[in-house]
């Protein structure tokens, strides 16, 4: 049996069509959703991600503004720019592309973004709201993964979800989102003993570690749903995930590809959050 491929690209296209209609309605009410994106330094991957985000904004009618700064700016300078955007009523969402240069404290930067404009869902206020089940901006990659898994119609309640990776951006919050859906959640990471013995118990396996093809067929239970968040650049310039796709597709029931898997869904949820931010502002 070969796994069915969950096409993030196709699902993203469908959702973006709906989002474009929502933006139309907002515009008729005189609101143009606006996203400000801050990019510091010249990391090629970050530039490529930001380009993708801006293109997607344009597709659905969100106005995006890009602020690029050299890696040499001070932390104070960046915090002041964020404060200016916090005060700008035409900006509904603020996104600071990570990683930042090492002399800048990422958490301090994130905490400076107004929680009401934190469309990445990284501010501790939004993380806390998510944890206790309050209305919050959900982080885009975990949210996109949840929407993808729901799209195949699996009943998440009671399922064993194994998350490999514990980053603040993906691993930790994605486990929480599935816990909210009544899954049994296990976290694995670089210090986990006998990783394969644990991942083989997963009904839904989510891998976000950034190690090319870490997960082979022997890490996967037959029939599992496998979500690959990894984006690794190989020496030949091609992208590959954390999952050995060719091997695992022969074992899994569903699998996400890289590229065109989780990536397009991350961006889609960013668009969704930005539109929500614009709607909320209308009610305040
Ligand atoms: N770097 C890697 N993923 C992300 C993301 O989702 N948002 C931001 N701001 N930076 C990232």
UniProtKB/TrEMBL annotation:
Known catalytic reactions: (6R)-5,10-methenyltetrahydrofolate + H2O = (6R)-10-formyltetrahydrofolate + H(+); (6R)-5,10-methylene-5,6,7,8-tetrahydrofolate + NADP(+) = (6R)-5,10-methenyltetrahydrofolate + NADPH
Keywords associated with the record: Amino-acid biosynthesis, Histidine biosynthesis, Hydrolase, Methionine biosynthesis, Multifunctional enzyme, NADP, One-carbon metabolism, Oxidoreductase, Purine biosynthesis
So, what pathway does this thing act in? One-carbon metabolism; tetrahydrofolate interconversion
Classification from the root reads: Bacteria, Bacillati, Bacillota, Bacilli, Bacillales
What NCBIfam families does the record point to? Answer: PRK10792.1, PRK14186.1, PRK14189.1
Q: Which GO terms describe its molecular function?
A: methenyltetrahydrofolate cyclohydrolase activity; methylenetetrahydrofolate dehydrogenase (NADP+) activity
- Protein name (database record): Bifunctional protein FolD
| Sequence ranges assigned to domain Tetrahydrofolate dehydrogenase/cyclohydrolase NAD(P)-binding in this UniProt record | 139-280
GO terms (BP aspect): L-histidine biosynthetic process; methionine biosynthetic process; purine nucleotide biosynthetic process; tetrahydrofolate interconversion
Q: Where is the Tetrahydrofolate dehydrogenase/cyclohydrolase catalytic domain?
A: 6-120
Q: What does this protein do?
A: Catalyzes the oxidation of 5,10-methylenetetrahydrofolate to 5,10-methenyltetrahydrofolate and then the hydrolysis of 5,10-methenyltetrahydrofolate to 10-formyltetrahydrofolate.
Q: What is its EC number?
A: 1.5.1.5, 3.5.4.9
This entry carries the following GO cellular component terms, namely: cytosol
């Amino acid at each position: 049996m070969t796994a069915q491929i969950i096409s993030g690209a196709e699902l993203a296209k469908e959702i973006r069509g709906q989002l474009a209609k929502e933006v139309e309605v907002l515009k008729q009410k005189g609101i143009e959703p606006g996203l400000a994106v801050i990019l510091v330094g010249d990391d090629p991957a970050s530039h490529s991600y930001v380009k993708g985000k801006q293109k997607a904004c344009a597709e659905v009618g969100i106005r995006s503004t890009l602020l690029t700064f050299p890696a040499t700016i001070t932390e104070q300078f960046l915090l002041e720019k964020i404060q200016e955007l916090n005060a700008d009523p035409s900006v509904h969402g603020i996104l600071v592309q990570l990683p930042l240069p090492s002399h800048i404290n990422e958490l301090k930067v994130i905490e400076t973004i107004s929680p009401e404009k934190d469309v990445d869902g990284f501010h501790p206020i939004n993380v806390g709201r998510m944890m206790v089940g309050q209305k919050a901006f959900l982080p885009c990659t975990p949210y996109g993964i949840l929407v993808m898994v729901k799209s195949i119609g699996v009943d998440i309640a009671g399922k064993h979800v194994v998350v490999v990776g514990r980053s603040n951006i993906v691993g930790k919050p994605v486990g929480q989102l599935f816990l909210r859906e009544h899954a049994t959640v296990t976290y694995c990471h670089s210090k986990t003993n006998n990783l394969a013995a644990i991942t083989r118990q997963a009904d839904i396996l989510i891998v976000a570690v950034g190690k090319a093809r870490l997960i082979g067929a022997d890490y996967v239970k037959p029939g599992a749903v496998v979500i690959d968040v990894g984006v690794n650049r190989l020496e030949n310039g091609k992208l590959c995930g954390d999952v050995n796709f060719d091997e695992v597709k022969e074992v899994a029931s569903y699998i996400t590809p890289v590229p065109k898997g989780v990536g397009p869904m991350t961006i889609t949820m960013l668009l969704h959050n930005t539109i929500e931010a614009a709607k909320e502002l209308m009610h305040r």
